[in-house]
Automatic annotation (TrEMBL):
<dbReference type="GO" id="GO:0004197">
    <property type="term" value="F:cysteine-type endopeptidase activity"/>
</dbReference>
<feature type="domain" description="Caspase family p20">
    <location>
        <begin position="5"/>
        <end position="131"/>
    </location>
</feature>
<dbReference type="InterPro" id="IPR001309">
    <property type="entry name" value="Pept_C14_p20"/>
</dbReference>
<dbReference type="InterPro" id="IPR011600">
    <property type="entry name" value="Pept_C14_caspase"/>
</dbReference>
<dbReference type="Pfam" id="PF00656">
    <property type="entry name" value="Peptidase_C14"/>
</dbReference>
<dbReference type="InterPro" id="IPR015917">
    <property type="entry name" value="Pept_C14A"/>
</dbReference>
<comment type="similarity">
    <text>Belongs to the peptidase C14A family.</text>
</comment>
<protein>
    <submittedName>
        <fullName>CASP3 protein</fullName>
    </submittedName>
</protein>
<feature type="domain" description="Caspase family p10">
    <location>
        <begin position="178"/>
        <end position="240"/>
    </location>
</feature>
<dbReference type="GO" id="GO:0006508">
    <property type="term" value="P:proteolysis"/>
</dbReference>
<dbReference type="InterPro" id="IPR002138">
    <property type="entry name" value="Pept_C14_p10"/>
</dbReference>
<dbReference type="InterPro" id="IPR052039">
    <property type="entry name" value="Caspase-related_regulators"/>
</dbReference>
<dbReference type="InterPro" id="IPR029030">
    <property type="entry name" value="Caspase-like_dom_sf"/>
</dbReference>
Amino acid sequence: MSQPRQSRALVIVNTDFCGSDGDAMLGTRRGARREAEQLSNTLSRLNYQVELMHNKTAKEIEELYQQECRREHGDYFVSIISSHGEQGVIFGCDSEPVKLTRIFQILSSKKCPVLTKIPKIFFIQACRGGEFDQGVVVECDSGEPEPDGFSASLSIPPQTAVMFACSPGYVAFLNVFGSMFLQALLKVLEGEERHLALNRLMTRINWEVAFRCQARGTYQGCKEMPCFVTNLLQEVFPFSA
């Protein structure tokens, strides 16, 4: 009996950034590499074929997704992006922006037929602005989105779910031990919650970050509120290996 094809996971982590003149531009993201390696190992144990890529330029990031259109895929495609970012973009290690809509466009049914019916799941650890979330008693997702924030979230291919580390306009926290968001994802994937349907799993991550995570040091007391958008038409269980 032949073995079923493994689902694929593409993990991209940028930690060091420079400009065209070679000078350092954006800050070094200490803790991000180790975190990405932990997630890659966990996904491998969940029967994913994982490709872990470090410090890729904006052009190289686009090329990585174009290559997925020529790969063989199993039941799911998962991608984790960990980098600096702003609303609607993430940055390559050359400090050049990559529009998220560009990545989603590459994986659209028209340009990537092989992924048309396969659920595509993104976890994006990057800032979406410069505001700091001080937290509130009842509502955690209280930021005013950028003018294009909502429409950009809707520009995703069919059969896609995208989870962001923070709300539009806000920063995403990272320290030497990792990020609030991806550490919560790691905890869920290593626990019994991994058997949940994807929408419930993402809601569990929201809960973990909202109620168990809080910035320390310079930003003592600041919070973070992940959020997700999905156009999946059925419940999926991508991590119930």
